[in-house]
Amino acid sequence: xxxxxxxxxxxxxxxxxxxxxxxxxxxxxxxxxxxxxxxxxxxxxxxxxxxxxxxxxxxxxxxxxxxxxxxxxxxxxxxxxxxxxxxxxxxxxxxxxxxxxxxxxxxxxxxxxxxxxxxxxxxxxxxxxxxxxxxxxxxxxxxxxxxxxxxxxxxxxxxxxxxxxxxxxxxxxxxxxxxxxxxxxxxxxxxxxxxxxxxxxxxxxxxxxxxxxxxxxxxxxxxxxxxxxxxxxxxxxxxxxxxxxxxxxxxxxxxxxxxxxxxxxxxxxxxxxxxxxxxxxxxxxxxxxxxxxxxxxxxxxxxxxxxxxxxxxxxxxxxxxxxxxxxxxxxxxxxxxxxxxxxxxxxxxxxxxxxxxxxxxxxxxxxxxxxxxxxxxxxxxxxxxxxxxxxxxxxxxxxxxxxxxxxxxxxxxxxxxxxxxxxxxxxxxxxxxxxxxxxxxxxxxxxxxxxxxxxxxxxxxxxxxxxxxxxxxxxxxxxxxxxxxxxxxxxxxxxxxxxxxxxxxxxxxxxxxxxxxxxxxxxxxxxxxxxxxxxxxxxxxxxxxxxxxxxxxxxxxxxxxxxxxxxxxxxxxxxxxxxxxxxxxxxx
Length: 588
Ligand SMILES: *[C@@H]1O[C@H](CO)[C@@H](O)[C@H](O)[C@H]1NC(C)=O
Ligand SMILES: *[C@@H]1O[C@H](CO)[C@@H](O)[C@H](O)[C@H]1NC(C)=O
Ligand SMILES: *[C@@H]1O[C@H](CO)[C@@H](O)[C@H](O)[C@H]1NC(C)=O
Ligand SMILES: *[C@@H]1O[C@H](CO)[C@@H](O)[C@H](O)[C@H]1NC(C)=O
Ligand SMILES: *[C@@H]1O[C@H](CO)[C@@H](O)[C@H](O)[C@H]1NC(C)=O
Ligand SMILES: *[C@@H]1O[C@H](CO)[C@@H](O)[C@H](O)[C@H]1NC(C)=O
Hints:
This protein is of the alpha/beta class. β22 and β23 form a beta hairpin. The termini are far apart. The protein has helices at 2-16, 63-74, 87-94, 98-110, 131-138, 205-216, 234-241, 268-278, 304-314, 338-346, 368-383, 452-462, 501-521, 531-536, 575-587, and strands at residues 27-32, 40-42, 51-58, 116-117, 124-130, 143-147, 152-156, 159-163, 170-174, 256-260, 289-293, 322-327, 354-357, 361-362, 387-391, 411-412, 420-426, 432-433, 440-446, 474-477, 480-483, 487-491, 494-498. Strands 10, 11, 12, 13, 15, 17, 18 and 21 form an eight-stranded mixed β-sheet that branches. The chain has a four-stranded antiparallel β-sheet with strand order 4-5-3-9. It has a three-stranded antiparallel β-sheet with strand order 2-6-7, with no helix packed on it. The structure holds 2-acetamido-2-deoxy-beta-D-glucopyranose (6 copies). The site of one 2-acetamido-2-deoxy-beta-D-glucopyranose has 5 residues, from β19. GO terms for molecular function: metal ion binding; serine-type endopeptidase activity; tripeptidyl-peptidase activity.
């Protein structure tokens, strides 16, 4: 018996012309979770015939080269500053090596699977594979898990393996070990509180020493209407940040895009009503374009997030063509189209100059390899000249949403070093940190060089406070901040009062879009990936926010301080200062 079966095996191998190893390659554990993530519960095996929509990410040829190229085009003083890469140049860095394509495709073919490329560079492929086959191919145990809070279910595995010969070629399989809690977005309520002036001082000798410095922070003189105390409008933002009302002139080349997920829709009729009320100086029929990804359609009644994002881009970035990118219902991977929108924009010959996204995740929900891959996708957009902005999150140090936590919870994509993360402020003269403004330190991405000095200074000031609750070696966020409460938004015909870093990111995007307009008018390139430029600015360009903190996880959170801090970043923008600086750097 024993000999006979060996013989059969041998014959099969001869026929297929491949060594035995191919029939059952040695497998190596590839990704693994030690336990079911909080909020999820297993409820047994799915029907083995259930089809999974699996994606396979290749190891990219040269991600380090991409990173070098990104910094080369975005660091002031570097040789190729703002000389952005073409689509083909970027794709060369991320396209898999031919031998990677060969070994992975051979493995899939041996398993009877035909996969399709899903990205312009071919670094991702996808295929529908049954649960039974996926379990066999990947030594996996795909089970049904329900997310308790939202009563939704997903099919995932706690671990999987890949054939050893695919190591170095296949980066990871998705969604396999990805457990992402579905986003429920409660409106952020900001209730102004009576604060003692030095509320943020954590009570150490060091922190006390800085509070006298705080009083020296320059206070800008401005005429800001008192209504802005209760109700933030485009006029308030124009006043606080010196944003011009005059329309941009570069509509042929300038662009601003708003990413939208979870079925959110922006109604042009709401925008008209909003403009009529809050921008009486411009044509109330000014509207936006819609780009659909994954079958997203935007023809429903207005919803909160989308209305906010569209009204504070079209309504603030006067004269800048704005596109609402509506990402459809593809949510079986938990990422809700986060991969697909970037691929769709990378496929364009001219991606938008600015992209703002007010959605995000707790970093711990995203497996590190997937987070790295998405982060590289933002680097690709950045090297092509897009400023990629994300809201930092609304749960203070406890993450994307307020939650119980034992350790501070950073938010992704804000922790990606290749995006600009926007936190929130409240009040003015002086502005102070919004208590919900998420910020902190990544557990996946190390701190990038551009923020080394700024973050070191902060950590020294902070001393040992809550030291065990965060990873001080990680990429620190946010990078900047802006007003984030009481935004007046027209939703289905009624003006509502909306708060959150969701308000800050589109507003910052609009300011950048107007700076880009001035750049283009001078025949210069748009600003692109902003962080190396922003962190290189001397004091006095941005408005430094030095009061407030972002409580969470049973702590006071991080205090705002002189210079960069993990609540308000480097501070809030000033259009005139930034524009002056950009002009001055050109004359050199
Ligand atoms: C959860 O969803 C299932 C099926 O979709 C349904 O039968 C059940 O009633 C739901 N439970 C709750 C608490 O909503
Ligand atoms: C702000 O709102 C409060 C309560 O809603 C109201 O009493 C007050 O008059 C408002 N202040 C301004 C400046 O609108
Ligand atoms: C908006 O909501 C905040 C907090 O609930 C409140 O203080 C403020 O007065 C409201 N503003 C308006 C215009 O209703
Ligand atoms: C701006 O757009 C016009 C019209 O499409 C084009 O001719 C011109 O070259 C563009 N300028 C730049 C700087 O891209
Ligand atoms: C928009 O402007 C037009 C022309 O000025 C005006 O007739 C119309 O009433 C305005 N729409 C709203 C909603 O105010
Ligand atoms: C801390 O962050 C670094 C990246 O800077 C990461 O390599 C490390 O694993 C993190 N530590 C923990 C305990 O998460």
